[in-house]
Request: fold
Amino acid sequence: MGSMLRRVIFRLRRYRSKKNEQLAASSQLFIGEVSSEGFTIERLVGNYARQYRWNDLTDVMIDIPKLTLTFFTFKDRSFVVPKANHEGWYKLLHAIPEGYPSFDIKAIHNHLSQMTACKVCGGMAVYERVCRACETPVFSGDRQKARLYYTQKQLEYFAQHAGLAYIDLFADPLDGFSKSPDFEILVTEEEVHAFRAQENLT
Ligand SMILES: [Zn+2]
Reply:
């Protein structure tokens, strides 16, 4: 099986496991490839894919309270990319090149600097008590149960996002977030492999 197909299947599995929390499959989109040339927006289920080149976009505006990006094209048209139904929205945000007249880099730096470390993926990505990289909520409740919670969540996270053939516990966080220097790995490769087998993820 090709690695691309495997990635898609993995995404679908990840999506299915979370489907009750998310929007209907038909409206859920994700940011696909992002490069110095541009980016794609794809559908988790179905064959919708649109490609945008940075050079074809004239401006971009961010609304931080709403977490939306509005892109403008040469024809004075615009389209909105809300985080609410675009998985990987921050991957796109991190990749927007400098130089667009209305792109408020300072506001974005300010927003990103308010984020705190996630104890599941290590990303500096926790905003309003949810990690915006791995989508895990911050544990609330009995302190003694916190370690159990984060151990379980790390098993789930590494089982789904680390490499397929081998487990990379030192992988960078998703979506371009920086990694906390204090990140503590609570699981071993063997435990992640065992968890995958148990959950039929391989
Ligand atoms: Zn996280």
The chain is about 30% helix and 20% strand. The chain has a mean pLDDT of 86.
